[in-house]
Amino acid sequence: MRSVVVRLVAVVVGLGLIAGGFGTAQPRGPVTTDFADETGSRLQPDRDRSFWVRPGDIDKDGDLDLIVGNRPGDPALIRVMINQQGKFENDSARRMPAIPSQIPFGADLGDIDRDGDLDIALAMGGGQGGGEPDRILVNTGTGLFQDETATRLPGVVINRSFVARFCDVDSDGDLDLFVGTLAGEPARLWINNGTGLYSDQSGSRLQQVGAFSIAAADCADPDKDNDNDLVLGTGEPTQGGVNQVNRLWVNSNSGFFTDETAYRVSFEQGTNTLSIKYLDVDGDGDLDVFACNNPITPPTIAGRAVLWINNGKGFFSDETALRLPFGVFNCVDFDYADFDGDKDLDIAMVRAQQTPQAPNLLLMNDGRGYFIAIDLPVEGGNEGGNGVVFKDLTGDGKPDIYIARVGQDVLLVNRNPGASRP
Hints:
Layout: E1 2-8, E2 31-37, H1 39-42, E3 52-56, E4 65-69, E5 78-84, E6 87-90, H2 92-95, E7 104-110, E8 119-124, E9 132-133, E10 135-139, E11 145-147, H3 149-152, E12 158-159, E13 161-167, E14 176-181, E15 188-192, E16 198-200, H4 202-205, E17 213-220, E18 229-235, E19 247-251, E20 257-259, H5 261-264, E21 273-279, E22 288-293, E23 306-310, E24 316-318, H6 320-323, E25 331-337, E26 346-351, E27 361-365, E28 371-375, E29 387-391, E30 400-404, E31 410-414
């Protein structure tokens, strides 16, 4: 085990240091972080080609387990990592049913049948092959899963899907399911009848605008009208020769959506958004939006991470240049947590593995929604990643960082006693 202490002692206060007007956060003093790469002692060896990871207490023992998505040819398409006092055991063969050979591009965990355990939705196929029906895997109550797609998603069609997101869209207290698909195939909205049985109501509830791929999605209430709106990250940025933009679909209060992107936010064109989430970065009680964009070659401004700030009513302004440090490019996935106990949200971000010169980053929040970037350590070199979880995985109350990647996944344990500030 190696404990890597990353120390940044800097006060970078200038704005617009680089052409284009990018700004930097203003640290309140010297900042010290301490993460230990404890991969060797807490993870079993693997050489899988992992490209996403989701946390959840699947066996109901009070700690967070991990579900990891792999590629065909790996020992398991879905790897189930059971948390045993902060050490993770691969129990996929016993807990996971056989999954078709198409790639599970996305997943979400939620209790669809309200029996007190976490079930799994899989978005299958993505841009690979001829597509595959999406899947519902139901938890038997002990962390063992059964494929109940035929019963739970009646009439499910073959799609090439990228993202699955559970969300109560009709405010009836159960989890509905949104699925984002490849351009040319309609996004899907499955409505839960309250017992975990779904009906496809996409045609009446979604405003399908144009042909664009949906590679990322999140669901929350940014306009504070007591329903959940969808923010969508579009992939395939030049599909059909048209530069696509991310989308904001606003809920009518009863689960019917209207595209209000042009009215509420100015999204950039031509981005390849692989992760997008609502979160309150500036502590004002409303939800902002952060997105990871992975550029088309060569890297362009469209490949940077982007931050939109909510005015409190669900209207957003792009404040990336003011709030994020310059050079946050090649972003593939992110997660957020308060890593240093100062009551604001920090961001752990992984960057494309094909660009090893671009290290994974911890974006530290100064309490007002302005960030500084610190390189994350990885044993043997910083080699990027495909997915990340920023949660307490060791049971000590501090958020740790799990990185899913091609080759050995990585676990960075938070040994920070609290950011060192004068």
